[in-house]
Amino acid sequence: MRLSTVILPIHRWSEGQKTWQRAEELGFHAAYTYDHLSWRTFRDGPWFGALPTLTAAAAATTRIRLGTLVTSPNFRHPVTLAKELITLDDISGGRVTLGIGAGGNGFDATVLGQEPWTPKERADRFAEFVPLLDRLLTEDAVSQRGTFYSADEARNIPGCAQRPRLPFAVAATGPRGLRLAARHGQAWVTTGDPKIFETGTPEQSVAALRGQIEKLGKACAETGREVAELDKVLLTGFTPDRGRPLESVDAFVDFAGRHRELGFTELVIHWPIPDSDFATDQQVFERIATEALAQLD
Questions:
Q1: What is the mean pLDDT of the chain?
Q2: What single string gives the DSSP state of each residue in the chain?
């Protein structure tokens, strides 16, 4: 099992770069950031762009993997996104993972002046977005006419530093999204079952996650792929456990062990932010980063 962190882009780089460098020093497998234009309770405070932040992080680090968790079609187009990702992968020396999902009805969904898409339209767009982005990142020139997204002689030379392209970590729980993860993903991402976040129990969450992994297995089987080929990533903090696993090293080891048994290969924890839902004791957090996984062996 690997341990990663997600760093919200809320600090000016003169301060924020220290966090990304510290994440590398602590030995995290990857450091991700959210790809939003604004987000929830942070909407009225500082919030910087994901891809420029990752580019700066690539220049400030040498080993840690970097990525979005997650990018969505809400305000992205495959053609421009592909160009930026190829550039970021080059600058980082091939350390980028693209977390990608269908998006939701948050602020990003209306900031460009459009009406929020229905769940069906989000799924329709996602089903077109991912395969086109896959082509754009693996082929020198792409022309494709779609219902929502098109490309006309889009050039992406020399392509990604990683071959055949940088890996996709596809966030999905529904049948269409899981099929996309099976076809195009090198990893699958979940935050758990949102229906039980408020009133459910950790035991119910484990059962729900087990069910999601079973559905992923069926989607893989339909595409002729082994589910073991995909990394399984849990973005923590959105299950009924909430922040309790980060209260102590022992609590995290227990949490990690239960989820490793389910088949998860990577856990992602939020970098502490005081006076927020992600408030965690920094010293405990750093002990978890450096000590916890060794206790699983």
A1: 97
A2: -EEEEE--S-S-HHHHHHHHHHHHHTT-SEEEE---SS-GGGTTS----HHHHHHHHHHH-SSSEEEEEEE-TTS--HHHHHHHHHHHHHHHTS-EEEEE----SSGGGTTTSPPPPPHHHHHHHHHHHHHHHHHHHH-SEEEE--SS--EEEEE--S--SSSS-PPEEEE--SHHHHHHHHHH-SEEEE---GGGTTT--HHHHHHHHHHHHHHHHHHHHHTT--GGGSEEEEE-SSSTTTTGGGS-HHHHHHHHHHHHHHT--EEEEEPP-TTSTT---HHHHHHIIIIIGGGG-
